[in-house]
Description:
- The chain is an alpha+beta fold.
- The chain is built from 6 helices and 5 strands.
- The longest helix has 26 residues, at 22-47.
- It starts with a helix and ends with a strand.
- The model has no long low-confidence stretch (mean pLDDT 84).
Amino acid sequence: MAELGDRAVQTTAWWRARASSPIVLGLAAVLLAALGVWALRQADGLRDDPSTRNTALTDGAATSEVKGAVADMIGKVFSYDYTDPSRTSEAVRAFLTGDAVRRHEAVFGKVREDAPKARTVLSTRVTDSAVTTLTGDRAAVLVFADQQTTRTGDGESTHAPAMLTITAVRRDGQWKITALDTFTPG
Length: 186
């Protein structure tokens, strides 16, 4: 038994002598530095993950702001009253930019053409929306809306659902729609 105790003391003394040698200390420093570099790269990889940059997942107030702004804009640019067509035109100028203007014209041109003849009023109301990405001053939003068309001549009214994807950017503190795409049921 004493032999086992002596051997433990010798082993401990041997390790202490080796552990304080410059070679062992240098090797430990290199291993710690390598571990630090590896950990730093892992952390950078997590920060570069697109899901961590998407504040729609983490900032409820900003997400709510985008949803409210988009709902307001969609309600105005996709509503039309044949007795006051300038209201829709003003909304388009105020809220749409870039490709969204061209896309709106392609979708809404026929409404503007036919509405005076049929004495039509179209109102669009957003029923739900989801901000799929929000990165800085750019957002992608999926919008569900209800459109009601009323012919004032005979009072007949129809409802239709609408679904759009919207790209919006904040410029000078105001959200504007830069791209929109409509989905047709299929």
